[in-house]
Model the fold of this input.
Amino acid sequence: MARWNVGEKNGMWRGGRTITKSGYVLIRVGKQHHLADIRGYAYEHRLVAEKILGRRLKPGEQVHHEKSRSENTPCYLKIAKSIAQHREFEGRRNFSRRVIGQPNPIRVCACGCGVEFKTFDSSGRPRRFVSGHNTRSKDG
Done:
């Protein structure tokens, strides 16, 4: 069985640092590291975030880049407690769900029947049609 040259012995070795197609920096940390993927690489921004915090990232915590994805200087990283907070950092809002405290305006059914209802249902999902309307089977 042939043995592959790994690490510094490999001709493709780049010092244990590589960049993904999406622009994130991966650092070789070894397969035993808690953030490592199957090859032994971890995202640099997550490693830096753990150093900033002085602890491991909790489940659900995300790291936001103020600049590009490859800029992992501590002053350009923010730790978000949730996906929702991360979206706020990015200046995006999640319009697929109603945020607690957000108004729930009245709207008219999109089928044209004229029935009025609240924009979001009890689960916070947006609505365009009255419940039970079958928009695909219009008689014509």
